[in-house]
Amino acid sequence: MKEILVVEDEGIIRQGLKVLLEQVIGGFQVVEAKSGEEGISMVHQHMPHLIITDIRMGSMDGLTFTSKVRQVSEEVPIIILSGHSDFEYARTALRYGITDYLLKPINRIELSETISRIFKEPTIEMTETSKQFQRILQYIDDHLSHEITLKHIAEYVYLNPQYVGHLFKSELDQTFTEYITEVRLKRAKKLLKDTTLKVYEVARLSGYKSPKHFMTIFKQEIGMTPVQFRKLS
User: Fold this and answer.
1) How many contiguous H segments (helices) and E segments (strands) does the chain have?
2) pTM for the whole thing?
């Protein structure tokens, strides 16, 4: 189980994140620190898989805390939380090597999406495909919760959309649409099994704007509704 260190001086927010990460999103163990100083002490004792820290805290703010973490590890992902008034301040945190920043109040879908992106699992074995096609698969994996078209991919890799479509047939023996449906449903099944997110939230994180359309596709491809699948998982 992956461990997440939450550094936040407000107890209510700290506890809220713990419930969200352990019970709603699921699959994580949360370790709490009430200050940047306490967080640094914990980092020296044991490096977590991910750190989430508030940007505004007492004697040590989130940026100072992050700079001290980076003296210990340049690899551990760090998410900074900030209020709207700290937006520009939070952007400066990028130079400190943070992975992402989120605005308060925390949107659980956005948080779940960010963490999924950090701990993403490759959709297929990347060493089995050409380097050019690897970039395409990585793009899909990174943008799965958004609209993805052949045109979007073609612009990203500077290729003709029709040629990109042919690559799916030659590399995977699947059409672009078949592959997108497969990976979207794979993510949906994982979210239904491993989290308590509502079906419409699972739909959105899997790239479906319409929950109704998602439920139709899911039942058509999986043979049961998302709710039925969750109960049997």
Assistant:
1) 12, 5
2) 0.61
